[in-house]
Fold this sequence. Notes:
Elements lengths: L3 H54 L18 E6 L9 H16 L1 H5 L3 E6 L1 H9 L3 E6 L8 H16 L5 E9 L5 E9 L3 H4 L20 H79 L1
Amino acid sequence: MATLREIRRRIGGVKSTQKITKAMKMVAAAKLRRAQDAVIAARPYARKMKELLQHLASVVDVTANPLFAVRPVNRAAIVIVTSDRGLCGAFNSNIIRAAAAHIRTKYGEMNTAGNVKLVVVGRKGSDFFSKNDYTIANKHLGIFAGLDFSRAQAIVAEVVQGYLSGEYDQVEVVYNEFKSIMQQRVVIDQLLPIPAEDVSQSSNPKPRTFQIDYIYEPSSAEIIAALVPKHLNFQMWRILLESNAAEQGARMTAMDNATTNASDLIRDLQLSYNKARQASITKELLEIVSGAEALKAAG
């Protein structure tokens, strides 16, 4: 049985840890609010950009753009978005597990041949995939400490260059989508070539009473060429925002659970301490009574 000193030391250690988890929960809550506001603020722009692409796709053949061109997939790149720090529950393990399963299922032979390259965002994903048999094309570490739109542009520029040069035939992205504080959803999206159904209305037609016909200057094709890079940049920016918000929500939940568990553990340790103390007092009383009885018997 643990001594009173050992139990007191354990209680002190758990209380210190509880203070840290409480502080981390408060920090995550503050960051979550800002991250959630950023995601909500990005949605109207993304919606309007998609509407414009949909309208242009109805009058222009978007497949003429090289970023829409579908070709046989012999080489692929996968952008995997994780966090730089842990202590956020299953946030990173879910992403890593889903990405590894996706590569094994869809690109098993290509990965064995070294034709699947990873662009890893976040230190946790980098640590895992670097230690295992995966080909890392590039790493983007520490970007969530100062999340900026230029970070998304850099990632997009890298994969677009690889796609246009023929280094990749397809680019996908794996990330956590923010649903709520308690829920994140692992999403696997195709980034390149841009899926035609994403900007086509034919796959999911909606009844309309009228269709506005805009006159575009310069030409619709030129606008498509200018709009597609902006679309890709903003899509990656939205993914980073989603992942950041999901990470803060997961960390807040994990630290809240850790704080609650620490309270339960302190209560159990306090009970064990009281029992040990009571047993110690009882033992001392028995020793005193036994000693007194021995003296009586001797006298």
